[in-house]
Amino acid sequence: MRTLVSRLRAGERARDDSGVPADAATDPVHALALLRQAQASKERLRLRLAGPDGAVQERRVRVLAVEAGRVRIADVVRQTELTVAVHRIVSVVAE
Fold first, then answer.
1. CA angle at residue 25 from 87 to 75, to 5 degrees?
2. Rounded to an integer, what distance in angstroms lies between the CA atom of residue 81 and that of residue 1?
3. Using one digit for the tens of pLDDT, what is the confidence trace for 16-31?
């Protein structure tokens, strides 16, 4: 039992140290729901994306379209438009 509790606590510490806000949508179902809602309301989001090398980058975006397996976004800081595969989205947070 002690081993289990220590592993659970270690997992919680790792999650807290990951830099992902507590209110972030991290599972695909909630992330897609938040993306669709932001598209409808034209709300800006903070999106954390995993790159091809596994490095995570954060972007401030507006959602242009949510399609099957991908999301088209406008990066408001870099003033670029890109299409992102849903499986690359690490977390979504409303601003």
1. 65
2. 50
3. 555 555 557 678 889 9
The length of the chain in residues reads 95
pLDDT for position 26: 74
CATH code of 23-94, in short, is 2.30.30.520
Q: 10: how many CB neighbours lie within 10 A of its CB?
A: 10
Extents of the domains making up the chain: 23-94
- What is the distance between the alpha carbons of residues 85 and 50, in angstroms, rounded to a whole number? 10
Residue 6 structure tokens: 């220590």
